Amino acid sequence: MSSIRLAIVGLGKIARDQHLGAIEATDGIDLVAVASRNAKLEGVHCFSDIHELLASGIEIDAISLCTPPQGRFEQAQAALLANKHVMLEKPPGATIAEVFALDQLAQKQGKSLFATWHSREAAAVEPARKLLSERKVRSVHVEWKEDVRHWHPGQAWIWEPGGLGVFDPGINALSIVTRIMPESFHLTASELSFPANRAAPIAANLTFASASGIAVTAEFDWRQTGPQTWDIRVETEEGPVVLTHGGSRLLVDGTAQIVEEDREYRNLYRHFVSLVNAGRSDTDFSPLVHVADAFMLGRRNVVEAFED
Ligand code: NAP
């Protein structure tokens, strides 16, 4: 099978930190072009936006969108209408309706659509999922607390409507919990803290319930300096199952398990290659649905203004 000729749209932090290296390390896919308003990359065709890329006539099979979520729909739609397979960075879009519309369009065009959740590829996630399917889960508590100034310097879009604020990292935790939980759950309460000068929350406290009564709670906070916390603690009748470091480490009944090297983005690209070659899509939007619910049910607190 010939290699997939890929273009990246939006050559920013995550494209440079993760996508370029992962594509390089993945068989069956080659980066041939980049479309970014300001950034360029040596050795590939460079365009200023997706429309210039698609109009150029260079041969590409697929597009990986690494732009902010606002505006992603128009880009994905243009790519699918031009008969390209599409890989979406998380979150897959800015609204629920637009991601379902994209899913339908991909089906209509007969192209693969991959809504990625990189945190689901963290080393502890699959072992935790298997373990929890054999245990009786009592409760889940998520603590996702990081320093926004460190991780998102100068990213204005993240504070705008559709940028999700603290849910930009928080949705990673939800992508893990939705994968490892043996049953589905839904939001029952949400408290959101908005800085007085921003359109997106800096902190959130969420409560969910499952049909069988498992309590799921989550605390997201972007104001944590010093050590960072990305932990998910699952209490089971047989003992605690704890994922730390964003899902890359696992403690079972207090004992640390084997930790693998980080392969999140290499796993994503390997999966994308297999989806394209099999003519399939992978579009689980459930983490975004929970975030939308958190905004729908959210009680709004106004907190201290945030300056970069
Ligand atoms: P970023 O550093 O701001 O990069 C996004 C790039 O998209 C920008 O450099 C920009 O390049 C381009 N772009 C196109 N339209 C834009 C617009 N209207 N506003 C701003 N930039 C625009 O953001 P990022 O951190 O890479 O995040 C991109 C996506 O990846 C987000 O959905 C984020 O949740 C996800 N993600 C980020 C991380 C992370 O650690 N940063 C981790 C995992 C996933 P040009 O100016 O050249 O057009």
TrEMBL record:
Coiled coil: none annotated. It comes from the Bacteria. SUPFAM superfamilies: NAD(P)-binding Rossmann-fold domains. Residues 4-114 form the Gfo/Idh/MocA-like oxidoreductase N-terminal domain. It holds the Pfam family GFO_IDH_MocA. This is Gfo/Idh/MocA family oxidoreductase. The lineage of its organism: Bacteria, Pseudomonadati, Pseudomonadota, Alphaproteobacteria, Hyphomicrobiales.
